[in-house]
Model the fold of this input.
Amino acid sequence: MRADREAIKAAAWGVAATASLGALVVIGSRNLANFDAALVAYTFATLFAVFGITYRYAMWLQRPPTAMMWRRGWQLFFRPRWLGRNLVAWFRKVGGRFALNDFIWRRGRGRWAAHWLIMWGCVIAGLITFPLVFGWIHFTTPDGDFERYQVHVFGFDVASFPLGSALAFTIFHGLVWSALLVIPGVMLAMRRRMTDRGAAAEQSFGEDFLPLILLFAISVTGLMLTASYTWMRGYAYDFLAILHAVTVIFALLWLPFGKFFHVFQRPAQLGASFYREVAELEERARCARCGDAYAPRQQIDDLETVTAQLGYRYSLPGRPEGHYQRICPRCRRISLALAQGGLWRDARGPLEPQGTGAGTGAGAGDVAALLASPSRQVSPREGGVR
Done:
């Protein structure tokens, strides 16, 4: 029943997002007056992608860990005590993590170059393509002046520029510039996929190669269209236009299901980083056994809640600790050693500490012997424990 409720809620969000985009297309194109009917296939593919992405994102946000991180991220970001600090950090993180991809730079320069080129090529292409497809932006020639282009945004006149200007050349070749960024990025990523043994061991065709092939096909067919009408007098233009449309539509339909979906998940990392950083500045949790501070208090409280929601029972009824999460990592390792010592004692009797011939009772001697000779550890089954 819970899964059904989550699916219904996610579907409702998907329908709402799709309907909102459809309404914006109608409104932004002035009741479809500025909408190019030849691009209707792109529009419906985009509407499908919006529904799929929203549905999957809503399902992802309903998972207990993600829901907790999402909610706490917003709460801690807008907490009055840290709001000024968070705003400054937000601009720094957006510039570093998203504009520059500095977190990938630390993994390798070649990997960073591939990701950065692909990302900015796709961003530029998206900012150009979708407003044009939806009719939000269109160009006209002013009455009596055939040497200028008038730019209309949502039906309003916003600017004009000469046809032969550098600005016109840059604008009308925006998709060419994006393709020239994507193609070398794809080649660098493909090279890594074929030469890096670590990547080759984990990759799959659908998750790793297909997205790169789609991006490459879209970019190359788009450049071929430009070459056709610029230097080849429109030779094979119709065929190339259909081929390009097929690659774009397939990529849009694949968007919610493949690796491209991480593009929409990535911004949530900002909330996770604020959660970690702000929680570190506030009250610290202290171990219920040794009393040492070991983690943010907020994180430990949330971890207890999430593990219970996931069906894990880490509570310790009748024990002073109350819950396993309230024990620091060091004490957990000691507890494990004590538990192993108890298994030794129950299975084979008391152990003798190394370097002495005297027997000892159960307790510290067992643990000392166990830690002194880890190579002699046996499994519970080998020791006869069931």
